[in-house]
Amino acid sequence: MRPPGFPTPPRPNAPGGPLEPQQGWGPSPGRVLGMPVGAVIAFSGELLGQSKKLAGGTTDLQHYGWKVCDGSPLLISAYPELFAAIGYLFGKGKDGEFRLPDYQGYFLRGVDPGGKVDKDQDQRYRTDKKNQKYDRVGSLQLSALQQHQHVLEQSDSTVSNGVLGPEPVIAPTPQSNSGNVVKGSALTSETETRAINISVYWLIKCRLDAVL
Fold first, then answer.
1. Which residues pair with 125 in a beta bridge?
2. What is the dihedral of CA 77, 79, 83, 85, to 10 degrees?
3. Which of 26, 39, 76, 114 is the most exposed place for a label (fewest CB within 10 A)?
4. Does residue 12 or residue 210 have the better pLDDT?
5. For the residues of 2-50, what is the DSSP string, one character each?
6. Strands (E), 40-199
7. pLDDT tens string 68-120
8. What is the pTM for the complete model shown?
């Protein structure tokens, strides 16, 4: 049944006039419009927040059927469609509750059946049970740096005060001919290896859209 006030979408135009619906074209009666519950999108604006305690945002998700992926607990009775989609994959709350995925600070990676690209699937774990290996959707894979080698070429000149030529180094000890080289003004981090990035909110669809 079409909700009251739901407009009939216009037919797309073509050079010879409006296109006529063909078999299999567009949603059929009884089918749900929009994205499936459990779908995740990136949102680039400010939000009012999961609750009205936070101010300063401009978009109130309560009116759109989406929630921020922040690990919050939800009542199963209030969000049965979302629970049917993700269950307890991201953990449980109190009795009668399940948890949203917590994607804050994470990059998302496509599921790779067979490990054609994701070669370290044996390093994936359940988000709610960090010691249980799990390589399906919703699994967590911690940071890693691929094993590699660097070649350091240097002359027979001596190292003086930790400096070899224009490159600052840590002076080699008598037991070692290697040292740490810092070149140029490359940005470094003590906590992670990361790609260039822009922060967004990850939102998850939690309610059904209109049904025709």
1. 133, 140
2. 150
3. 114
4. 210
5. PPTTPPPPPPPEETTEEPPP-TT-SPPTTPBPSSPTT-EEEE-S-B--S
6. 40-43, 66-68, 73-75, 97-99, 124-125, 140-141, 163-164, 167-168
7. 999 999 999 999 999 999 999 999 999 999 999 999 998 888 888 888 888 88
8. 0.66
